[in-house]
Structures are given as C-alpha cells and as structure tokens.
Amino acid sequence: MQAIRSAARPLALSARIAARPQALPVRFAHSAAESYDDFNARYADFFANAQDLFELQRGLNNCFAYDLVPSQTVVEEALKAARRVNDYSTAVRIFEGLKEKVENATQYQQYVTETKPLREELGVLLKEELYGNK
Question: How is this protein annotated for GO cellular component (predicted)?
C-alpha cells in the first residue's frame, strides 16, 4: 500500500516545490502623502458627482476615516449630495460625524454657523434641533 502512495506522487515535483524560496514582492499602497487641500478637493469633487446613496455613504465613511476634519466645502457638497439622492437621515448624520471629528465644541459650532444658510435652503435640521440636547 505504501508503494502505491509513493508512486502516485512524483518525488521530483515535491522536492522542487519544497526547495523553492518563497519571496514575495513588496508593494506600497501610497506613493506620496496627500495635502489637506488635495484631500478637500478630492472629496468635494467626489460628493459633487455622487449619484446614489451607496456612493454617498461610502464616500462619507472614507472621508471620515482620515485623521483630518473635512473643510466646509466638503461638508456642503456632502449635504447637497444627501439631498440629491433624497436621504434626509444621511444629511443629519453628516453633522453627527463632524461633531465627532472636530477637536472641540467651538469648531463644531463654527461649522453649524457657516452652513446654516445651506441647511435652511435644503431643509436639513441638526440632531440637536430635532431631538434637543440629549
């Protein structure tokens, strides 16, 4: 029985596989660091062209995953995209994510103040305005 198993596996092939070095090429994901202005331009353009809810939410997840707070322009384009795809809850959640990203309440309040005309135009209320400060 042992002779049959040995004959079924060619010895030369198994020896070549065992002797082959297993070196894998190293690939780097990013070639250069992206500047803050490039980051904002990229995401403002992304949200300006987002056409469905999946694309918008994917972009928001990626944008908020960075250690950067998006500029007012990016937030405004994301709000417009949320209303364009007719998803009110995502428009409200943009500010929830922004509240977590900023360093303090003053910065968050500046975003709220600066985007107020657009929020009123689009009919987007903040979570605090909907439910009070809980």
Answer: mitochondrial inner membrane; respiratory chain complex IV
Contact present, 102 and 70 (Cβ < 8 Å): no
67, part of any domain: yes
Give the separation between CA 123 and CA 43, rounded to whole angstroms. Answer: 23
Q: How many domains does the chain have?
A: 1
Burial 64-73 (b: 16+ CB within 10 A, else e): beeeebbbee
Q: What pTM was estimated for this model as a whole? A: 0.73
| Contact present, 43 and 11 (Cβ < 8 Å) | no
- pLDDT tens, per residue, the chain with 134 residues: 565 555 555 555 555 555 555 655 555 555 568 899 999 999 999 999 999 999 999 999 999 999 899 999 999 999 999 999 999 999 999 999 999 999 999 999 999 999 999 999 999 999 999 988 76
The dihedral region occupied by 86, where left means phi > 0, alpha psi between -120 and 50, and beta the remainder, is left
Here the CATH number for the domain that contains residue 111 is 1.25.40.40
